[in-house]
Automatic annotation (TrEMBL):
Taxon lineage: Bacteria, Bacillati, Actinomycetota, Actinomycetes, Geodermatophilales
Cofactor(s) named in the record: pyridoxal 5'-phosphate
Gene Ontology MF, one: 4-aminobutyrate:2-oxoglutarate transaminase activity
Origin species: Geodermatophilus sabuli
Protein name per its UniProtKB record: (S)-3-amino-2-methylpropionate transaminase
Record pathway: Amino-acid degradation; 4-aminobutanoate degradation
Length: 452
């Protein structure tokens, strides 16, 4: 165990390029990959990873990258967090699998207790655990349909809920997630999102909700709606933060209509936005909450948590899966949650916002190509447009992101129009390292979008 701690510490928290990017060993692996891995799976970075610690990823050629992506909002607690590593090692040595549906174990129960404590609302709750965010969302829909005996599911423009058949239907964007993969699951109805940057100026959250719900009432019928499913802040859709009042209005409508309000907190959950869950920022208490990404420090684990009467409406045996709530993943989740609590990583996310927002706003003023800076906590984005318009500039977005990669900073893009730079640093990132990454971002903008 001390060995592991020593090795984790050995990942110096610095950006350092020692070869060209990608280096020779990464190029070798890329050639092997081309002959073995389907080209249908893409990768953001041109380099192959050897190890990682904290907020730094080291490639096979010895280059150190500052991670502003966290493997898509997963390693919030940092890469190889010592407490998580120790918990995983202890659990691996004890037992790796029994299948909770065959031989149950404490870790699954303890994670479910934590989810009941941490998710919004103090009502009686139950949880089921799964392997991926998509699986949690699918099961949320299954629960809502059984509990309401209705079938329609309402989702939003720009939504992302996964890549399985049902979740493809729930996801908005055709390319690359849906194109050619249909037919999709039925009884899914899409309505407009509150997207302040692209809505009529001044449109309130209540007005945006009324616009969406009018379509539901006229085209679906409130009495047919099993669930309204929404990301409190959209992830892949471009970190779209709805106008204040939008989420509460949707939740109120659900309560009045007998529909289940599902918050998909797979990306926003676990301290990412400066609170345990993003729904808290608006005081919304969802009936069901889905979780995954940041929950288990990099191990695959997902949760569906919500009102006991909803989850317990399903017949015994109706939910489950071979690996769902795997004991090693549960041990990782318990250590991750303990670390988040002890180190106040929600506070750390707010400190990241305080450091990053002024820098992004300064870039916005200087370059004229950033139409909107938005987000909460350590989930921040810059939407790139042609100067003076709202016209998306995906080409410039990709060029800036690539320039960051070439200089040793891992950045991600998002958005229906591919024109959003999104930032999801590990919550444990040091202020100096973050400032260095932002200097690299500044230089990338200076090179590709010179002021004026
Ligand atoms: C990533 C994501 C999913 C899907 O999670 P997977 O683990 O990739 O299946 C679902 N919902 C949201 C909001 C996500 O960000």
């Amino acid at each position: 165990m001390t060995d592991v701690l020593a090795r984790t510490d050995a990942v110096t928290q610095e950006r350092r390029l020692v070869t060209e990017v990608p280096g020779p060993r990464s190029r070798e692996l890329a050639a092997r990959r081309a002959g073995a891995v389907t080209s249908a799976v893409g990768s953001v970075l041109p380099v192959y990873v050897e190890r990682a610690g904290g907020a730094v990823v080291v490639d096979v050629d010895g280059n150190s990258f500052i991670d502003l992506g966290s493997g898509i909002a997963v390693t919030s607690v940092g890469h190889a967090a010592p407490e998580v590593v120790a918990a995983v090692q202890a659990q691996v040595a004890a037992f790796t699998h029994t299948c909770f549906m065959v031989g149950p174990y404490e870790g699954y129960v303890a994670v479910s207790e934590e989810l009941a404590r941490l998710t919004p609302g103090d009502h009686e709750k139950r949880t089921a655990l799964f392997n991926s965010g998509a699986e949690a969302v699918e099961n949320a829909v299954k629960v809502a349909r059984v509990a309401t005996r209705r079938s329609a599911v309402v989702v939003f423009d720009h939504a992302y809920h996964g890549r399985t058949n049902l979740t493809m239907a729930l996801t908005a964007k055709n390319m690359p997630y849906k194109n050619g993969f249909g037919p999709f699951a039925g009884e899914v109805y899409r309505v407009p999102m509150s997207y302040p940057f692209r809505d009529e100026p001044g449109m309130t959250g209540e007005q945006a909700a009324a616009r969406a719900l009018a379509l539901v009432e006229t085209q679906v019928g409130g009495e047919n709606v099993a669930a309204v499913l929404i990301e409190p802040i959209q992830g892949e859709g471009g970190f779209v933060v709805p106008a204040p009042g939008f989420l509460p209005a949707l939740a109120d409508w659900c309560a009045r209509s007998g529909a289940v309000f599902i918050a998909d907190e797979v990306q926003t959950g676990f301290c990412r936005t400066g609170a345990w869950f993003a729904a808290e920022h608006e005081g919304v208490v969802p009936d069901l909450v889905t979780t995954a990404k940041g929950m288990a420090g990099g191990l695959p684990l997902a949760g569906l948590t919500g009102r006991a009467e909803l989850l317990d409406a399903v017949h015994t045996g109706g939910l489950g899966g071979t690996y769902g709530g795997n004991p090693v993943a549960c041990a990782a989740a318990l250590a991750t949650i303990a670390t988040m609590r002890e180190q106040d990583l929600a506070g750390a996310a707010r400190a990241i916002e305080a450091a990053m927002l002024p820098r992004l706003r300064a870039l916005q003023e200087r370059t004229g190509v950033i139409g909107d800076v938005r987000g909460r906590g350590a989930m921040l984005a810059a939407e790139i447009v042609r100067p003076g318009t709202t016209e998306p500039d995906a080409g410039l977005t990709a060029a800036i992101s690539k320039a960051c990669h070439a200089e040793g900073v891992i950045t991600l893009t998002a958005g229906t129009f591919g024109n959003v730079l999104r930032f999801l640093p590990p919550l444990v990132i040091g202020q100096e390292l973050l400032a260095d990454a932002l200097d690299v971002l500044d230089a990338a903008f200076a090179a590709h979008a010179p002021a004026g």
